[in-house]
Amino acid sequence: MRIIAGVNKGRNLISLGKGDPSAHLRPTSDRVRESIFNLITGGRFGNKLENCDILDLFAGTGALGLEALSRGAKSVIFVDNGQLAIQLLRKNISICNVESKTKVIKSDATKRLPILSKNNFDTVFIDPPYGKGLGQRALKILLEYELLSEETLIILEEGNQITSIENFFIRDCRRYGSSYAHFLTLKKIL
To answer: Which of 52, 70, 71, 186 could cross-link with 8 by S-S, CB 3.0 to 4.6 Å?
Structure first.
């Protein structure tokens, strides 16, 4: 696992190989990460990386958020509730030398995020264990704590295609092997 582009391009991260099911860690592959970031930076959704504030839920090893920082994000808040994930994440942050641009929070993203109240993020990555509905629960928490604006781009990875999510527009969905990346925005509240 490595950083694909930007200031830390080619930097190797501590990885779990294909993952650690017992710790619910399944890192996004380099190929999938590159495809997702090509869509984010391709202009279709506007510039949602450079000088942006990023939230990485179910952060695991931190590859998504660290890739965002390498490509010019201003800051990343990483959230995960696994002890092994937090250890790996801190090591990867150190490898990339981005401690001053990051914050790590050990929390369950499906239950509460009060420490983040009233922050509006430009981009949110949600990469939960597949097939448990955790991504949809995390979206409800983001709404409850008012962490999104109408301009926030959310990338939700899941093991199946989702055709509708209450309060959100699915702007695009891409399949990468057994993964689906959904690109969401908040529906405008009238």
So the answer is: 70
